[in-house]
Specification:
two-stranded antiparallel sheet, mainly alpha
Length: 126
């Protein structure tokens, strides 16, 4: 299981629309250059390169050099670890919701009846 800091880095990296778009592109066509990733984007190739560094820092993307080109590849293992972290949070919420459901649906506790007979002091209870 990844550390909370590593998972936070992943969510930070995915919290930007441009980076999310890059991850989506790499998920469908692995081994793309920064130039190919910048096609159709509303930012420059240099901006894409900066976003790729953030994604690499979070462990979401790796790169490999092929001749003069640098190709970027999605690291699915990091996404699996982030999903496992979210699954753990979700399971905790599921347990909390189930406890709440049981509490709400449980019949009300029986109220203790107060005795109406005489008290120790000889008086009667009201």
């Amino acid at each position: 299981m990844a550390s909370e800091r590593a998972v936070a880095d992943v969510f930070f990296a995915l919290g930007d629309r441009t980076r999310l778009s890059v991850v989506k592109k790499l998920g469908t066509a692995s081994g793309l250059s920064a130039t190919a990733l910048s096609e159709g984007a509303k930012v420059t190739r240099q901006a894409i390169a900066k976003h790729l560094r953030v994604l690499e820092g979070a462990g979401l993307v790796t790169h490999e050099k092929r001749g003069r080109e640098v190709l970027f590849v999605l690291d699915g293992g990091t996404l699996v670890e982030a999903r496992a972290f979210l699954d753990g949070i979700s399971a905790g919420w599921d347990r909390a919701i189930e406890r709440l459901r049981l509490m709400v649906e449980a019949p009300p506790p029986a109220r203790a009846r107060r005795p109406t007979g005489p008290t120790r002091g000889g008086g009667t209870r009201r």
